[in-house]
Amino acid sequence: xxxxxxxxxxxKNILFYLWEKEINxxxxxxxxxxxxxxxxxxxxxxxxxxxEADAPxxxxxKGSVGSAYxxxxxxxxxxxxxxxxxxxxxxxxxxxxKARQMGKTPVHVEQGYxxxxxxxxxxxxxxxxxxxIYRTLSGLADLDVLKVTPGHxxxxxxxxxxxxxxxxRVENTMLFCGDLSRHPDYYEIVTFIMSRGLDLKFFxxxxxxxxxxxxxxxx
Length: 219
Prior knowledge:
By secondary structure, the chain is of the alpha/beta class. Helices cover 18% and strands 23% of the residues. The chain has helices at 12-20, 42-45, 93-102, 131-138, 186-194, and strands at residues 3-6, 24-27, 46-48, 57-59, 78-79, 83-86, 105-108, 119-122, 125-128, 144-147, 167-170, 173-176, 199-201, 215-217. The chain has a three-stranded mixed β-sheet, covered by helices on one side. Strands 5-6-7 form a three-stranded mixed β-sheet, with helices on one face.
């Protein structure tokens, strides 16, 4: 059994759920060099180079993540089976090199917080509310992309969070941090995920909350 990485303000009932499943949960500490609630967001410090739990995990060296955008988004890339998706102007060099070694095709999008903005369902299926990401990825014939309504996700200190940051795939379950049923595209999201053969779990006692993604890794 590997690890699931999450932010330090993850709600306790999600932690209890993971513990009951005997999944080792790693709660990241706050980085004093980063501003706001994102200071412990896993998707700013960890880049998983694929969808499966045994995909290589690249960790940002201590002190290398900037205090604000775009410096704090260098590791916030999303990796699918064939593609590395990010704002390639700011991607950390070691991520680009690892993608090259793995034969992944780099795909440029303007949104630097790419991983936050993508619910990675499987290696060729994603959900996003970002119009620019949607336009780019929907142009790739071997990807399935569901476009959803922006917003409806909380992030302390910010006007809104992102659905990708409020979710993560843990084993064969897409886990959402909060009440997915409050999202206006709830039925489309559920249908999209379950049609990929995955289970779905959410928590109806609080609104969707961006915790910087739940990142499952064997490392």
